[in-house]
Amino acid sequence: MKTKKLITLALSAAMISAAVVSVSAATLTQDDPDGKTEVIATIKGSVPEGITYEIKIPDVIDFGELTQPTTNTDSYKTVNYSLRLNKLTGDNFNPGTQQISVYVKDQNAKPNGDDVRFYIANKENSDIKFQYDVYDKVVNPEDIGTISNLNAGSMTKTKGFFLCDFYFEGQEMSGTLSINQSQLYGRDILDIAGDYSGYMLFYSTIENS
Length: 209
What we know:
Blueprint: E1 5-6, E2 9-11, H1 13-16, E3 43-45, E4 52-56, E5 76-89, E6 98-106, E7 118-122, E8 129-135, E9 161-166, E10 172-180, H2 189-192, E11 196-197, E12 200-208
Antiparallel strand pairs: 1-12, 2-3, 4-5, 5-10, 6-9, 6-12, 7-8, 7-11, 8-10
């Protein structure tokens, strides 16, 4: 994968302002000599002036009904998804040296964390959850397990795993989600029955090649 570098980072005006406004205050006394103050700031990634874009992401990706296998063997179920660059305007966007990069992660994943996998959880009991995998290409069910998924490695960036680049308006990418129904094997079906959901968090940014 080619190395990517953010175009710029701009400090917000509030950060560089000389005046600091405190929304709350604490006190130190002879009886309570310790205290703590939260230090906050904002860093915003800047978009080159005059460039606008719109990327269509899925509203919902539905695995449908999962089936508990009768044997403890792999039982993959897959569903495809797609993204599309619906709009890209700006004469100063150069597809030879720039791209709109898209990243994705699970709603609870943290960079360099112990668990950066994707999950769907029972809506009534979030402690009951099952892992699914994300692929940046369309994968046939019979090939699952032989091709690396995005979450097979570590996630080093806060914005998530690199998913794809867009260069031209109308460009599309398609991929696959896969869930191994063997996770349901041996579980009491009455305990795990119900509706499940999770969130894929997408992040887009203009980057230099």
